[in-house]
Amino acid sequence: MNPDAFDALVTNVRGDRLPRVWSLLVTVFGDLAQGDCAAIGSAPLNGIASLIGIRPEAVRVALHRLRKDGWIVSRRTGRRSAYALTPWGRTQSAGASPVIYARDPVESDAWLVLTDPSQPAQEAGQDLFPIASGVALAAAPAREAGELSLRLDCATPVPPWIAEKVCAPETVCQSRILATRLERLCLELVSTDCLSPLQIAVLRVVIVHEWRRIVLKVPRLPDHVFPDGWAGPDCRRHVSDLLSRLPKPRLDALDAVEAGQP
Amino acid sequence: MNPDAFDALVTNVRGDRLPRVWSLLVTVFGDLAQGDCAAIGSAPLNGIASLIGIRPEAVRVALHRLRKDGWIVSRRTGRRSAYALTPWGRTQSAGASPVIYARDPVESDAWLVLTDPSQPAQEAGQDLFPIASGVALAAAPAREAGELSLRLDCATPVPPWIAEKVCAPETVCQSRILATRLERLCLELVSTDCLSPLQIAVLRVVIVHEWRRIVLKVPRLPDHVFPDGWAGPDCRRHVSDLLSRLPKPRLDALDAVEAGQP
């Protein structure tokens, strides 16, 4: 696909604001190089970043920080550098993947969990999403003896003040914008034949990245406790459709790429 | 029945402590004279009180206070005084009767009601029994739009910290003591043939009064949200059995009584 037409596709998905480079690279590694022996060369990394609108200097700074933070390691083969996730980075990526790539809702049940307010607050676990003092939502009943768990079925809509704690109005709005953009991409991407492996990688990365920014911000709870207008289900469906139409390119196909030359 | 044997029966039900006279008289009017035209003469009133162990002076003081508080009015016919509930007093009595005289639990459903903690607290209605900030129990789902109501079925036991708010440990203990005493009375009261109308009235009054002190102290919620050991269902059954064996005497049968002469 010619660069201008492709740039329009990318801009459609990511909007006007550039993503934070550090976070975008986490998406790149998580999507394209999560496997045990997977590594990405600096040329394809810069190639992907450049097609999204990010300059090599910003990539270099972000790679340095990711290394310092324990996400990635770098390897040098001859005059080429390659980057791979550390075991810890891989665990982080693998933990988020089921949520990011799910076609169907990850959770179907919601529970209201009540804890004794006179008891010292428990450590806020991943499992409990607090909505008021001593009151939390969870995807499973509580295991502690002193807690009361009540199932919230789909037929009982939660009141807005609860739904808005689950997902802030801005995030609902972002989900609607992304659903619209992804729907447009589904329509515009009549054929993927004309896309290079690098272009496919870039589209995957922007799609996953935009969805990841939303879905990892909200708690792991079923859609029926989200506010009216939450477009998570649409996003999930479009992400899943698009990614199956844009199969992950082989890393060696990307490695042949010179930076800036898709 | 001879006075000593009868006194033992009464003491068995009421225990060692004398009831508060004001409150006992509310029970007397509510049980024996709740009807529109019902009035009790001072002679039978003193007769009932005396068999429970209360002296005429204490009755006089309590009657004065009940009149001042708007519960009763006094009428004078010749040299006799009689007392009757005011319309307001009758409404109070009639409101409590379904709870006091119920053979079966008054409520079968319990609901957990969650209110938005950021909203100003609503007037604490009779209907909502608060157990924590923004969390209440109720016998019916809430009617307000912003509230979330979840049914607490019998199969889900509530944790002790909730049950103990519904009914304090002392009240649970009182219910067990009363259930034991009423059960003993059921066994001891082989026949009611030997009881005078005044003795029947006295037994009814102490039974109703002791149960009323417990049942009006606890919220109108089903037994399954009460603590382990709550003997409300036993008390309800015994009260109901005993009252049906001790039918309400006619007021004119009591009127024939001279104080202290059952």
Please compute the radius of gyration of chain A using only Cα atoms.
Answer: 21 Å
Mean pLDDT of chain A: 91
Strand tally of chain A: 7
Which strand-content bin applies to the residues of chain A? 5-15%
Terminal Cα span of chain A:
10 Å
Oligomeric state of the chains in view? homodimer
Number of helices of chain A: 10
Give a written overview of the molecule.
The structure is a homodimer of 262-residue chains. Chain A is globular, with a radius of gyration of 21 Å. In chain A, 48% of the residues lie in helices and 12% in strands. In chain A, a hairpin with a 2-residue loop joins strand 5 and strand 6. The mean pLDDT of chain A is 91. Chain A has a four-stranded antiparallel beta sheet, covered by helices on one side. Chain A is of the alpha+beta class. In chain A, helix 1 runs parallel beside helix 8, helix 2 packs across helix 8 and helix 7 runs antiparallel to helix 8. Chain A is built from ten helices and seven strands. Chains A and B meet through strand 7 and helix 6 of A and strand 7 and helix 6 of B.
Task: Draw up the topology in text.
2 copies of one chain form a homodimer.
Chain A: H1 3-14, H2 21-32, E1 40-41, H3 42-52, H4 56-68, E2 72-77, E3 80-85, H5 87-100, E4 110-114, E5 129-132, E6 135-138, E7 148-152, H6 160-166, H7 169-188, H8 197-215, H9 232-245, H10 251-255
Antiparallel strand pairs in A: 1-3, 2-3, 4-6, 4-7, 5-6
Helix pairs in contact in A: 1-8, 2-4, 2-5, 2-8, 3-8, 7-8, 7-9, 8-9
